[in-house]
Design brief:
The chain is of the alpha/beta class. It has 2 domains: 137 residues, Response regulator (Rossmann fold), CATH 3.40.50.2300; 67 residues, Arc Repressor Mutant, subunit A, CATH 1.10.10.10. The protein contains 11 helices and 6 strands. Strands 2-1-3-4-5-6 form a 6-stranded parallel sheet, with helices on both faces. Helix 4 runs parallel beside helix 5, helix 8 packs across helix 10 and helix 10 crosses helix 11.
Length: 223
């Protein structure tokens, strides 16, 4: 991967912290990550409280975060991290793929969401994306969110309406296709794609495509 190769050449390391209530899982992930010359596991925590205490002493670039942990769960820990440590990226690594957890974590500020049954290749893709200030959601998670989007309730007048074409554009943009690629898939020009994107930004009063998805989740438009 280009980003990781560049990190190797510049001798930079991505500092990783793992937060999970199963020590055996932590140990297994550490073995995987320690095989990568650009990654360094600098800490681990068995719950959200331990994680926050660790971050007071240890800097990190990315946190691999479980959701269901004792004392302080991953959702609440992520909300606190977003406020106290806005530069740290949070990648959810969990077994839960329900809409409740997915939307809760996205609304809480998670930068990515993948499932524990994923392979090493996708984990590395997610870490690379977050390190480049992008978001990353595995295909199953994206499908679950978009399924909710298609079933949204259109009876709430207080919420902005999206046209069918705008929905189609937003779905593809959320999957990280470029405007040109979206245009090719929908048989429209990339100028038209950009026009739809700008219309949605204006409707939702947000600045980015990620903001569009977050707004839709928070306002219940994906139910």
């Amino acid at each position: 991967m280009r980003c990781l190769i560049q990190l190797i050449k510049s001798n930079l390391m991505i500092k990783i912290v793992i937060a999970d209530d199963h020590q055996m899982f932590i140990d297994g992930i550490k073995v995987l990550l320690e095989q990568e010359p650009t990654l360094s596991v600098v800490g681990e925590a068995l719950n959200g409280k331990e994680l926050l205490e660790l971050l007071e002493k240890q800097t990190a670039d990315i946190i691999l975060m479980d959701i269901n942990m004792p004392i302080l769960d991953g959702i609440e820990a992520t909300k606190i991290i977003r406020k106290k440590y806005p530069t740290i990226k949070v990648l959810m690594l969990t077994m839960y793929n329900t809409k409740q957890y997915i939307t809760g974590m996205i609304a809480g500020g998670a930068n990515g969401y993948i499932l524990k049954n994923t392979g090493k290749e996708e984990l590395m893709k997610a870490i690379e994306a977050l390190q480049q200030d992008k978001t990353y959601y595995c295909q199953e998670v994206t499908a679950r969110v978009m399924e909710s989007f298609r079933k949204k309730d259109t009876h709430t007048e207080a919420n902005p309406e999206l046209t069918q074409r705008e929905k189609e554009v937003l779905i593809l943009l959320s999957e990280e296709f470029t405007a040109s690629e979206v245009g090719d898939k929908l048989n429209i020009s990339h100028y038209t794609v950009e026009a739809h994107r700008k219309n949605m930004l204006s409707k939702f009063n947000v600045r980015t495509t990620v903001g569009l998805v977050k707004f839709a989740i928070e306002r219940g438009l994906l139910d």
